[in-house]
Design goal:
With 404 residues, the chain is of the alpha/beta class. It contains 14 helices and 12 strands. It has helices at 16-21, 42-53, 66-75, 82-93, 107-122, 152-161, 164-167, 198-204, 232-241, 267-279, 283-305, 309-312, 315-321, 353-378; strands at 29-34, 60-64, 129-130, 149-150, 173-180, 186-190, 214-216, 219-223, 248-255, 328-335, 387-392, 399-403. Strands 1, 2, 5, 6, 7, 8, 9, 10, 11 and 12 form a 10-stranded mixed beta sheet that branches. A hairpin with a 6-residue loop joins strand 11 and strand 12 (399-403). It is globular and about 75 Å long. The protein starts with 15 loop residues before the first helix and ends with a strand. The relative contact order is 0.17.
């Protein structure tokens, strides 16, 4: 994967206007949220490179599946090594396909078809390999035996690109989502609450029936995308649980599937469209949930201001009033969308090096465009309990902002 060079001096992620007008203004917390999406994950790598160039380095990273792996590599390396380790991982798990990847005359689709077929039949170096014995032939097997591929190579690769000692020192908080196979519950492995090991990172991407469940402390876990493929809920939960630490957040959310898209004109296109809908973030729903929570916070804060000092000192009342703390969230939503006539339903398991670079370049270009056109908006002084969504128009490919 080609490394970009830039002469731009990174900026700091403080709200500049707030600092000038109020020396006590706090520094904004930067959070990256990475959706799952297999081979499309290099889109997030390109986005991270654009963010780093503009000085937006994460304090916290949240991810699911391949997004969890990308997040762990970021959190598990010092700043100067993060992009290099991300690219090292992707260079290791992708392979070159000796067919042109040209966006015309159907050449991209042919290239991408063979890339996906290679992944199905040969596996991916440094990631997974086909099992000799089909799991369909097993009887009374344990959950970790029930998969078509062996992910032992991934364990070795993760240990190579992630410094787990550094990760667990808390330089960047890491949260990766997984699904408890027995209970069906969605769980987050959180570096601020537990020691993160390679098993936790493998669990977030253990998508059945391709990859085996991962056993941790006697329980089996599978890909977090089985339950929910976008971990924005973790960010919203933090607002409810924390009074001050996470009160002023700039969140960059990278989705690898788009909820909106053109009508399909082929059966493969139909399958691709349905997959996009199934695994997309449904961000409107999350936005509505957050807006509702903000309204309740307003109400609690207003009613609390009307209480007498004696009532406010009641311990039970104080616990309720904590829910009325104001928060500010600016959500920059960067979404990957397939270029018309180039992708197939198999795009999330087409690990060709050429496709990976294309996705990376799109992530870089789109993220850079959003930053350069909208950065001035989220750097403004705003109400402490505001919510703004910055994204790209799905039809015009132009940045837009929605404020709630």
């Amino acid at each position: 994967m080609t490394t970009k060079t830039t002469t731009q001096k990174p900026t700091k992620h403080k709200n500049k206007d707030s600092v000038e007008n109020n020396p006590a203004a706090i520094e904004r917390k930067i959070i990256y949220v990475f959706q799952g999406g297999g081979a499309l994950g290099t889109f997030q790598v390109g986005g991270v490179e654009a963010l780093h160039e503009h000085g937006y380095r994460a304090d916290m990273v949240v991810g699911i599946s391949i997004g969890g792996i990308n997040a762990a590599i970021l959190a598990g390396n010092p700043p100067e090594k993060r992009l290099d380790m991300l690219k090292k991982f992707w260079n290791k798990v992708t392979v070159g396909i000796p067919l042109p990847n040209l966006p015309f005359a159907g050449m991209s689709k042919i290239h991408n078809y063979f890339g996906a077929q290679y992944a199905l039949h040969m596996g991916q170096p440094g990631f997974y390999k086909p099992k000799v014995i089909s799991p369909l032939l097993l009887h009374k097997a344990t959950p970790d035996q029930l998969s078509f591929y062996d992910t032992t190579p991934l364990r070795e690769t993760l240990n190579e690109v992630i410094d787990f000692e550094y990760l667990n020192q808390g330089h960047v908080r890491l949260c990766v989502g997984a699904t408890d196979l027995a209970s069906g519950e969605f769980v987050f492995f959180d570096s601020s609450k537990q020691q993160i090991k390679v098993e936790h990172i493998m669990a977030t991407g253990a998508l059945p029936p391709s990859f085996p469940p991962i056993e941790i402390d006697g329980r089996f876990y599978v890909d977090g995308g089985v339950y929910a493929n976008t971990p924005l809920s973790k960010v919203i939960e933090e607002f409810a649980d924390t009074e001050h630490e996470i009160e002023n957040v700039l969140c960059f959310m990278f989705d690898l599937f788009s909820a909106s898209g053109p009508l399909p004109h082929s059966m493969d296109g139909m399958c691709e469209r349905v997959k996009d809908i199934q695994y997309s973030s449904h961000s409107k729903r999350s936005n509505q949930i957050y807006a509702t929570a903000q309204n309740l916070s307003h109400a609690i804060r207003f009613l609390g201001s009307k209480l007498s000092p004696e009532v406010r000192e009641d311990p039970e009342v104080q616990e309720i009033l904590k829910l009325g703390h104001a928060h500010r969230l600016d959500l920059v939503h960067v979404v990957y969308r397939s270029v018309t006539g180039t992708e197939l339903n198999s795009k999330d398991y087409n690990f060709s090096a050429e496709a990976a670079h294309t996705h990376y370049q799109q992530g870089y270009d789109i993220t850079k465009k959003v930053i350069e056109t909208q950065q001035h908006e989220w750097e403004k002084v705003q109400d402490s309990d505001s919510f703004s969504l910055y994204t790209m128009d799905s039809d015009k490919d132009d940045p837009k902002v929605i404020k709630i």
